[in-house]
Amino acid sequence: MRIKYFWVLCLPLLSSLPTVAAKPWRPHFNPANLRDTITVQVVRHCRGAVVSITAKRIVTRRLNPFGNMFWNPFGAMPLGLGPVQQFRADFLGSGFIIQKSGYIVTNNHVVDQARSISVTLADGRKFPAQVIGVDPHADLAILKIDAPHPLPTLPLGDSHDLMIGEPVIAVGNPFGYSQSVSSGIVSATNRQIHEPNNPVPLTNLIQTDAAINPGNSGGPLLNAYGQVIGINTAIRGNAQNIGFAIGVDRLVKLIPKLMNPAQIRHVNLIGPGKPSRPLCLAALRQPIGPADIRVEVVRAGTRGPALSAIDGRSAATLVDAYAALLRAAATRKMVVLRFANGRTRDYAVVPVPPSPVLSLAWKMLGLGLQQVTPALAHHYHLAASSGLLVRRILGGSVAARAGVQPGDVVVQLGPYRIRTLRDLGLLLPHLAHAGEVKIMVLRNGRYGIGTLTLH
C-alpha cells in the first residue's frame, strides 16, 4: 500500500539561535491562577517571533476539453488533454525569527520556485523577503527581511534528547489562520518520510500529535521552556494527529551552509597562514540542565577559543556570528574576529572565483551568464523561470556574431534544453567539436534562434 504524505507548507490561494543571557525567560507554575498554564505562558512569550509567509508562484493548469478544469498546485505539467494555461497563485506557510536583524527559518518547500516572498509579522507588519540559503534535501530555508527595529526571536533547544510523551506546542499559519496554536506530545522520534519532489527521504523526524495543518509548514514546534525543538514540515495524509517536524539539531548543523558568505555575498574570508582556508564557524552546544543550553561559537574543527565579537558586533550565537559576517563581508575588505581570551585575528574578504562553467562559457562563447531563478525572473520581468540570463557579451565573440544580446535568456543549445549551469557544463566540452550549433534564446517574450560558429 502506498502511503501519502502532504507538505504542511503551502496552502494555495488563487488570485537565532538563542541569545545567551544571564537569566533566560522561563515559564513558572502560578498557583494563584490555574488558567495561566505553562502552555499559555509559552505562547504568550513566543508567538511574537512566529511569522506568516506568502510565496507567489506561477502554476500550470490544463483545461479539459470536456469542460472540467484540473490543475496542479505544485507547478508540474498536469496530465490530460486540452490547452495549458499558466497563472499566478499565492502559497501560504509559516516561519520563525532566529536573529533580531530579520533572519527567518522556514521549509524549503514553502519558498521553492517563488517569484516573490513576503513575510507578515505577528503585529501585522508586512515585509518583502529574500532567500538567503536553502537545503532542498533537508527541506530547510533561511529568509531575510529588513525591519527598521530589532525583532523578537525564538531560542533553539535540542532535539537529540527528546522524551516520548513530553509536551510540545505548534504555532503557525494553518489555512491562512495566522498565529494559530495547538498542543500535544512527542509521539515518537527518528521517523522517516518521503516528501513529494524530494528524492532524499527526511530522516530523524519528530512525530507529534499536536494538530498540524496545511499552512503550518515552517513554523516552530516548541517545548515547555519555549525553545524550538522542531520545524513543522508534513502530515500523514490519511490519518489524524500524525504530524512530523524536522529536529532543530539538523538546522544548527546546517547554519554554516545556509548562511555561507561565499554563496550569499560571493566572497570568502581568508585568514593568515598556509594553507589558507575560508573561515567556517560552528557551535558547541553543551546542556547545563533541562532548561538551559550553553552555546559557544568557535572556528569549525576546533574546541575553542570561543568567539566573542566580529567587527565589534556580538557573536554570542552561531546565527549572530554569521549575520555579523554577512554584514561585514558586504562593506569591508578586512574583518576582525575577537575571541573570549582577548585575542584578535584578521580575515581578508576576497572574491570567490567564478565557477569553471562560467569561465569556460566566457572563453569559448563570449557569454557572461547568470542562472535564472523565479525570483530573478520576477525582478527583471523575464518570461522564463529557468535558463541562463545573458549579463554581458564579449565583442566579436562567437555569441556576438550569432546575434545574442544582453538580457536574452539562453534556453536551448542544439537539441538540448538548458535550464541550469549544470546543463551547460555538461554540453560545453562537446561544443568544440560540433562546428556549428543552434542556440535558442528568449527575448522580450519571444523565442529566437541563432547559430554559434565555433570554427
What distinguishing features does this structure have?
455 residues; alpha+beta; Thrombin, subunit H; Pdz3 Domain; 6-stranded antiparallel beta barrel; globular
Give the SSE layout:
Blueprint: E1 5-7, E2 11-14, H1 38-46, E3 50-63, E4 69-72, E5 84-99, E6 103-106, H2 108-111, E7 116-120, E8 126-135, E9 140-144, E10 167-172, E11 180-193, E12 202-208, E13 220-222, E14 228-236, E15 243-247, H3 248-258, H4 261-264, E16 267-270, E17 281-289, E18 292-299, E19 307-310, E20 313-314, H5 318-331, E21 334-339, E22 344-351, H6 356-365, E23 367-371, H7 374-380, E24 388-393, H8 398-401, E25 409-413, E26 416-417, H9 421-431, E27 436-443, E28 446-453
Could you give a short description of this structure?
By secondary structure, the chain is α+β, with helices and mostly antiparallel strands.
